[in-house]
Every structure is written in C-alpha cells, then in structure tokens.
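Cross-check.
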Amino acid sequence: YGKEAGADQSITRHPDGSGPFVRHRSPPGVSRFSPGALRVPLASILKTEDTLQITLGQTFVPAVVGLSAELDTIDIQSEVTWSTDPAEALLWESDSFVAALPGSALVRAHFDTVSSEPLLVRISLPDTYDLRPVHSDTVALLGTDFAIGALLQTNGRELDITPVLAWQNPDSSLAAEIGIGRYRATEVGSGRFHAMVESRIVEVSYT
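Predicted model, tokenized:
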C-alpha cells in the first residue's frame, strides 16, 4: 500500500501497538515469515568478552547480542538495560558507562526476563592525573559531623574517589570515624588526615 507497496513486506507498529508503522522485518527479533508478529522470545544474552581492562575516566559500552531458542541472533544492543556491582564504580552518562572508581566491577545486561552473565571490568588509574582534596581545610563544631574527600581529575573529568581511599588520622582522639569519609568532632583541637594514591599524598586539615 502506498510507498510500501513494492517492498514485499507488510507493516506493523514498533514498539508493538504504540510506535509508528514500519516494515515488519525492521524491528529486531521479529520472525521473517510472520508479518506483524510479536518479538521472537529471547533465550539468552551473549556478551562479546568476559573481561574488560580500562582506566579511570574512560568510557565504554559492553557489546551484547540476543540469542533465540532456535539459536538465531537478535540485535538487542540498543534495547537492553544494565546493572552494575558496585553501582558507584561505573556511572551511566548519556549513552555509555564512565569508569568512576579504581578497582573492579561487574556489568550485566537485561532484556525482558533474561540477563547476561557478568562482564568483569577492571579499572586502573590513568598514567596522568591530578589529585586534590574536596576541601583542604575543614572547621567543625565539637560534637558535629563533617566529611572529607578527594577528587581525581583525568581526561577532562573530575571523579570523587573518596570511597576507595583509606584515610589515616594521626590525631584520632580529635575525630571519630562514623562512615566512609565521615567523622565526628570529639575533642577541641586541630588535626590532619592524609591518604595515599600510588605515591601521591592528599591531605585535609581540620579544626
């Protein structure tokens, strides 16, 4: 009918029932011989690699493909959702992941009720980066809580790496740790925190 008359295909809506009319073989996963049919049920999601090595601040998108029960491949790359563990290690920005914390993380793809096996992502520090405290000097009232942290700048990005730092507090009688990067002022006085990132030291003073 109309401009579709010579295409030798019927037309259907994509997404099903709500989207615009398209040729029936256009949506991923529909059967070639079933015009207007719903998506072929997905049996599994295959990832193209088991391990990915990247540097902090680098972006990437895992490559996956769907597999039907008949072992036909289905292009689902643009339609999957993702989960990460730990969630804060990889951030989703626009259309790709950003490596936000050094260490390792697991990524899974999900489509309908099917999930992929995890992709192991190893995140290392870049060759060049700048490191600075979130606040170089902190003033806290006795009995109140305060936070310290460090930012790593690389590839035009500034990333909060506080969760993976082991802060040293030589004046521990002045401030008690109550969480990651969080302390409570317990005595009057001045002190200093420091943490190591490779051979670099980041320091925070507090009063």
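The longest strand covers residues 103-111. Residues 89 and 100 are 5 Å apart (CA to CA). Passed to J.P. for a second look.
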